[in-house]
Specification:
The radius of gyration is 20 Å and the shape is globular. Strands 1, 2, 3, 4, 5, 6, 7, 8 and 9 form a 9-stranded mixed sheet that branches. It contains 16 helices and 9 strands. With 350 residues, the chain is an alpha/beta fold. The two termini are 25 Å apart. The longest helix is centred in the last third of the chain and has 20 residues, at 330-349. It has helices at 9-23, 36-54, 66-75, 87-95, 135-138, 146-150, 169-175, 183-187, 190-203, 214-222, 233-241, 269-279, 282-288, 309-312, 319-322, 330-349; strands at residues 28-33, 57-62, 82-86, 122-134, 159-162, 207-211, 228-232, 246-261, 326-327.
Amino acid sequence: MFRISQAGVVLAALSGVMLSVGSAQASDLTIASWGGAYQKAQSEALFQPAAKALGIKIKEVTYNGMADVRLQVQTGAVTMDVVTGGTGSAAHAGAEGLLEPLDYKVIDASHFYPGMATKYCVGGDVFSNVFAYSTAKYGANPPKTWADFWNVKKYPGKRAYRGGVAGALEPALMADGVPPDQVYKVLSTDAGLKRAIDKIRQLKPYIAVWWTSGAQQAQLMKDGEVDMTTGWNGRFDDIIKSGAKVAYTFNQAIYDSDCFSIPKGAPHKAEAMRFLAEISKPQYQAALTKYITYGPTNQDAYKNGLISDAVAKTLSSAPANAAMQIPLDASWYEKNEAKATALYQDMMLH
């Protein structure tokens, strides 16, 4: 999940830097995440239990993504030891020199799903980019594919779509008939990228909102402001539990992982590496599923009864659900994100 800092948070981030420098103790680890229900789940299942097991103190803060890391690294005032990020944004930040390479002699990722332990980011949980729909409107014959999401004649109604490029281009190509396993091959050509942008442009007259946050995507569906939207499965599960007449499918979804990185120049790099090793263990990742429906990146979390069969059916990384999806290709974003973002923003504006 990519978070984009607004200009207005820069001063606040700098203020946070100064405060942290003055208040952090030598034994503290400062961990930054995105707040809300998600960070609360991380705190309960990962951060606090791991701190106790390691005998360390942690300080939790919220932040606005890799732009905040860039600010600290460029000013030479790094206070964050561990940050939550998306695989694509972490790959990009790592290539930019903003993150420390991870030591997989310390962190055991040997049982992780492929691609979820990279040079600069180790996976913490798996979520899916899905489309959700109103069961009140489409319950008798719900949409099942991205082609259905684009089919405004068969499924009339207002749509919402992501206001950023991450996870937005792949659905367009699948809707246009590209086999899921060929999506990134096609996207890696200029013609394929244009094809995806043009497909979204076709849907643009029916897109009522370009969403920019997980909270917004869920609220749009809960309030009935739109009839379908793209978004993250865990956000929709939250509103479904509260009674919203909403459903989604894992079919043709794009699964991705939130992951953990260490900013370049982190004040407690070695301790941060040990901390990441601890929270990568299967028992921690299994515990996270008690608080939010995001699946583990460590396949061993599905073994030894750590996760019940009933819960597993709701998780992105459960084998049966993962088989219906494609993994987000972080290396594609590392190479193409800047170009794709420029084209995407131009499409939204014109």
